[in-house]
Amino acid sequence: MVSKNELKLITSLHQKKYRNKHQLFIAEGAKGVLELLDSELQPYKIFKTRDIDGLPLDKTVQISAGEMKKLSSLKTPSEVLAVFHMPEEKNEKGEGLILALDDVRDPGNLGTIIRLCDWFGVSQLLCSENTVDCYNPKVVQATMGSLARVQINYVDLENYLGSTDKPIYGAIMEGGNVYDSTLAKDAILVMGNESNGISSSILKKVTNTLSIPRFGSRQTESLNVATATAILLSEFRRS
Amino acid sequence: MVSKNELKLITSLHQKKYRNKHQLFIAEGAKGVLELLDSELQPYKIFKTRDIDGLPLDKTVQISAGEMKKLSSLKTPSEVLAVFHMPEEKNEKGEGLILALDDVRDPGNLGTIIRLCDWFGVSQLLCSENTVDCYNPKVVQATMGSLARVQINYVDLENYLGSTDKPIYGAIMEGGNVYDSTLAKDAILVMGNESNGISSSILKKVTNTLSIPRFGSRQTESLNVATATAILLSEFRRS
Asked: How confident is the model at residue B37 (pLDDT cuts 50, 70, 90)?
């Protein structure tokens, strides 16, 4: 059973304003929920429509598929929906490779990028304040549990980049060929918005531009920001 | 206005069976539709809810947002929905780098991979018969017009791979480090299913295995098939 108050609280978490107010967020899908339970994150409450191994009994309640449909943020709800406490915000880490996102809007792209940071051992993900919220349910779903293993901070990116002395690489269409570039280990890589790329105020802070050469026809659209991030992080790590 | 018969025809195209029967498919979204119009593909009919430059007048009709909602396969319909004739099937191309997909199921992944083939100039995309249909409306949307520029064939992959003398590279978790591998220019790269990887019958045909090293924690899930494809195609092209 889901009480009226719980239903109200949990559906409110589909919105960033209420996630921040309550310091809670939603994760959907058994695989991702189990991975998050296996991290430092603390569950607030878990709802399931069928028995699944590994869920903490004292925090889990069984509900009907109809109730799950009301709680879920997905078109096709999963069998598990968990509500987690947000972790306390930590100070930004300063060492190693840092990835910075300037106004990335698509939840699926941010989720994929968080997963890439986890794979490539990127210590710190910085998001501009207009980047999509990493506790958006669609982002959480796309991260598949990586959310708990990547440190993410929302910052005034222009300000942050103005106060660092690391090299700042920016991915732009007319940038230097990444295959021919020497990439520093201790650096910041900036990726821009899906339609507009890196904004002009941030571009002024970039010290080295990068691009991925195109081998196909001229007509080809730019690469998707998540696939471009995959290729560039691979280039930073491979050498 | 949309007639009853048109509505029936177009909504039937949400299903593969009827796409094949009528040899028609749907593309949604102004950007993708305009790119497809700028290719060899022939439009059958186009529906719009507001004026958009570049649509052929003789094929385009204005409809209401309510009518678009009925035609659309999307949760949030776009302002343009076009129906195109499927191109005639061509023989597979034999030269250069060929990408083969073994049972890739997610439409977004296939769409992203088609866009990557276009970017990296992959001459031929081969899909196993159980791979998602490339004319699925969600695939078409994710390709952003690249669909018209990449040759795609659905084949009996086991059979095909058994009859080629090119090197066959397969991406698997325990494969050889791609950064240390010498990659042939004239080759086939096989990518597997989102959950299960490359199936055992296909794996028998693979002559060289590849993997992307993990730099993060051991807990990290495998990379998404589209991001792994991005990194591997980049590796084939960079050298």
From this structure: very high
| Number of alpha carbons in the 13 Å side-chain half-sphere of residue A208 | 17
CATH 3.30.1330.30 describes domain B4-85:
yes
pLDDT single digits (tens) B62-82: 999 999 999 998 878 999 999
Q: How confident is the model at residue A95 (pLDDT cuts 50, 70, 90)?
A: confident
Contact B227/A112, CB-based, under 8 Å? yes
Question: Which residue, among A221, A229, A235, A236, would best test binding to B if mutated, counting the most B CBs under 10 Å from its CB?
Answer: A221
The pLDDT tens digits of the residues spanning A192-203 come to 999 999 999 999
Rounded to two decimals, the pTM is 0.93
In total, chain A counts a number of residues equal to: 239
Separation of alpha carbons A81 and A106, rounded Å: 22
Angle CA A20–A23–A28, to nearest 5? 100
Look at strands B80-85 and B98-101 and give their pairing: unpaired
> Cβ separation of B223 and A146 shorter than 8 Å?
no
Domain ranges (residues) in chain A:
4-85, 98-238
Q: Write the CA distances from B15 to A38, B9, B208, integer angstroms.
A: 40, 11, 37
Q: Specify whether domain B98-238 bears CATH 2.60.120.10.
A: no
Tell me: pLDDT of B34 over 90: yes
- In the structure encoding, which two tokens stand for residue B79, read together? 């302002």
Q: Which residue of B has its CA nearest to A146?
A: B220
Strands A24-28 vs A80-85: parallel, antiparallel or unpaired:
antiparallel
